[in-house]
Amino acid sequence: MAHIVVLGAGLGGMPAAYELKEALGGSHRVTVINAVDYFQFVPSNPWLAVGWRERDDTNLPIRPALARKGIELIAQPVVRIDAEGNAVELKDGSRVAYDYLVITTGPRLAFEEVPGAGPERHTQSICTVDHAEHAWQAYRGFHWFRKGRWVHLAKIGFEKYFLYKMKTGSSEPVYEKYVLKALGVTRLMHRSDETTTTTS
Ligand SMILES: Cc1cc2nc3c(=O)[nH]c(=O)nc-3n(C[C@H](O)[C@H](O)[C@H](O)COP(=O)(O)OP(=O)(O)OC[C@H]3O[C@@H](n4cnc5c(N)ncnc54)[C@H](O)[C@@H]3O)c2cc1C
To answer: Of 11, 33, 136, which is best to mutate to test ligand 1, by the most ligand atoms within 8 angstroms of its C-beta?
Structure first.
């Protein structure tokens, strides 16, 4: 009897485990190892982040579902694959031996690649159900006049400036010149007529 371990119970791992068990029947063992004991339907995370769905709507406890098909579940993160020894090491220090290993662990989120990125720092994420819930909490706690009043004021100023331009028919790029100057651009060259415009 062979022991097949499916690592990861996401959109890839769950169907893989079911199909393997169906094809192999009772003569071989199939075990799913997943960091948590539930399946999350990742594509619905955006709806959690805006409060249209709740965690229980998009997550499913997998132990009973897998047990019904004769598939075992170990709900623990795998910390190391010992390919030489045909075994995986779990967070609690135990080892699970396998004959065949299917790896469906999905993406590794690399927020550290962008300084300041990630829900632990300054941006929100909807890549996991935990992140999506965090984003929804953050959104609900966000109050323009308390936390983002300068952003809000800048937005109003920008809006008024453009409305004024539209109303008066002014084409003088006052704001654009100011921004370019702040960026260190002091001269613009028109390609068509090779004339030079200064921004001050
Ligand atoms: C916001 C969002 C919307 C999306 N919408 C769509 C869509 O509309 N259509 C579409 O086709 N695709 C969509 N995708 C992409 C799709 O969700 C992924 O392609 C898919 O989830 C990948 O499946 P997977 O099984 O490889 O990984 P996942 O579904 O991420 O599952 C990986 C599993 O492995 C487990 N795991 C990871 N590391 C370990 C470890 N060390 N030990 C134990 N378990 C571990 C995780 O807990 C998880 O359960 C979307 C993705 C996002 C983020």
So the answer is: 11
